[in-house]
From TrEMBL, chain A:
InterPro entries: AA_ABC_transptr_permease_3TM, ArtM/GltK/GlnP/TcyL/YhdX-like, Ectoine_EhuD, MetI-like, MetI-like_sf. The gene is ehuD. Keywords: Amino-acid transport, Cell membrane, Membrane, Transmembrane, Transmembrane helix, Transport. It comes from Albidovulum litorale. It is found in: Cell inner membrane; Cell membrane. Residues 20-208 form the ABC transmembrane type-1 domain. Belongs to the binding-protein-dependent transport system permease family. HisMQ subfamily. This is Ectoine/hydroxyectoine ABC transporter permease subunit EhuD. SUPFAM superfamilies: MetI-like (SSF161098).
């Protein structure tokens, strides 16, 4: 702290704020992919077709058991060897979205399994199709208990976006590194990055809890 | 799958039974819950099933609602096979499509109501007609409100199930099942989870159904007085078979089989 320079801090702030925008976009885009794909993976694990169930389950286990950074490298550096050439952004979104979709699929699975058996039976007695049962009866009841877990992973994905810096996505850490090496000063940029992460993560966790309570109330649960 | 080649592709004859169990067997592993059950129920008939727990009573309803698969025999509804379908002149296990087509004739109410907690009473009733039958929202609402009126729940139509008592939830569940206009209604111990003081409000609705509608009904119950009052026929189940059946006055008044006598006197002592 002895050497903290306020004028330098103010000078770099606009760049950091811009990078914060990129970080948020990366987190939200990755999360959007994960939310949709995760539900798909959760449902695929429940189909009556054994091979599908098995392959999806193994895939989820595989992704969950290997580091995110390796997956990012794979999509970005190994992809081109198979003719899949993607921008850092696209690679990053795919890797992080895929990674978190596997975690979210487990959250969904827990939510779906928490729905009472009688709900399935009532839906059958109303002669619903399997798709109708999920869409109208099961998923609306599976989401509220899954919201806490989903919220945790939203904060988690936000905190994991710095990994995208390794393939050159201009998010917060990448920008702080650049500022540091340009000016030979790392204290201010890194400290500011920490404060920005904290300033977003903490209120987000609170908002998620409020949202969860709101959804439960709205669904009459 | 079990051999059903000896069973007819459909049942005709006058009158055709609304429901017909033909040598229906259900087992879990080595435990046989239903043992070659034969049971015909006529259109408009009210049949009650009584018996000790574990005698297979509830299983009868659950198989008819296709909540469970059978291990032997064939179930027919309105003359058509339910658990099987005709293919190349023989019966094969029913496809999902066939099940959905035949299941439309059957409605069911459960011991624990199983209302959808995220929908209001009215939405619960409208759900099937709108999503499954394809009615317009307006038609479904009219139909549902009429039924909620009939079960005395119109005043609570905008409440979620969590705000309703057990008796109220069960009445909504009856309205929800009726909104699908089934030919056969199944009541699975619908008063067993209720506090004693609200049982009457549910049994009164079922009484009303019996007197005013020409529904075929199959009811599993522990309320002997109620079964005696409203049934056309009572079946006493024991060990996965019908031990004795007959008009309620006869079965309750003059049971012939020893097991029936034992059961009825045990129930009487418990009251």
């Amino acid at each position: 702290m002895f050497d903290w320079k306020w004028d330098f801090t103010w000078e770099i702030l606009p760049r950091l704020i811009q990078a914060t925008g990129n970080t948020l976009i990366a987190a939200l885009a990755g999360y959007a992919i994960a939310v949709v794909l995760g539900l798909g993976l959760a449902l695929a694990q429940r189909t009556p077709y054994r091979p599908v169930t098995l392959i999806v389950r193994e895939f989820v286990e595989f992704i969950r058991s290997t580091p995110l950074i390796l997956q990012i490298f794979f999509v970005f550096y190994v992809g081109p060897q198979f003719g899949i050439r993607l921008s850092p952004w696209a690679s990053g979104m795919i890797a992080i979205g895929l990674h978190y979709s596997c975690y979210l699929s487990e959250v969904y699975r827990g939510g779906i399994e928490s729905v009472a058996k009688g709900q399935w039976e009532a839906a059958t007695a109303l002669n619903m199709t399997t798709a109708q049962k999920y869409r109208r009866v099961i998923i609306p009841q599976a989401i509220p208990p899954a919201l806490a877990g989903m919220g945790n992973y939203l904060v988690g994905i936000f905190k994991d976006t710095p990994m995208l810096s390794v393939i050159g996505v201009a998010e917060l850490i990448h920008t702080a590194n650049a500022i540091g090496s340009e000016n030979y000063r790392y204290l201010e940029p890194y400290t500011m990055v920490g404060i920005i992460f904290l300033a977003i993560s903490l209120p987000a966790a609170g908002l998620i809890r409020l949202f969860e309570a709101h959804v439960r109330r709205k669904l009459g649960l | 799958m079990h051999d059903v080649s000896a069973f007819p592709l459909e049942i005709s004859g006058t009158p055709t039974p609304m429901v017909s169990f033909r040598k229906v067997t259900k087992s879990y592993g080595t435990l046989t819950v239903l043992d070659e059950l034969d049971l015909d129920i006529a259109a408009g008939e009210m049949v009650s099933i009584i018996g000790p727990s574990g005698s297979g009573k509830t299983t009868v309803l659950r198989m008819l609602m296709t909540l469970e698969q059978i291990n032997g025999g064939v179930i027919y509804v309105d003359g058509q096979p339910l658990t099987h379908m005709p293919k190349n002149g023989t019966l094969v296990p029913a496809s999902q499509k066939h099940l959905r087509k035949r299941r439309a004739d059957i409605g069911m109410c459960f011991q624990h109501f199983n209302l959808f907690p995220h929908m209001t009473a009215l939405e619960n009733c409208m759900e099937g007609p709108v999503q499954v039958l394809g009615l317009s929202k307006k038609e479904a609402r009219e139909r549902s409100e009429e039924l909620l009126e009939m079960v005395g729940m119109i005043g609570k139509k905008d409440q979620h199930p969590s705000r309703l008592s057990g008796g109220q939830q069960q009445r909504v569940a009856i309205a929800r099942a009726l909104a699908m206009r089934p030919k056969v209604m199944l009541f699975d111990e619908v008063t067993s989870a209720l506090d004693p003081e609200v049982i009457g409000e549910v049994t009164n609705v079922i009484r009303k159904l019996v007197s005013e509608h020409n529904l075929t009904m199959l009811m599993v119950t522990h309320q002997m007085g109620f079964a005696r009052d409203i049934s056309d026929r009572v079946c006493f189940f024991y060990g996965g078979k019908i031990e004795e059946q007959g008009p309620p006055a006869e079965l309750f008044g003059n049971p012939k089989k020893e097991r029936t006598q034992q059961f009825l006197s045990a129930v009487k002592e418990a009251v």
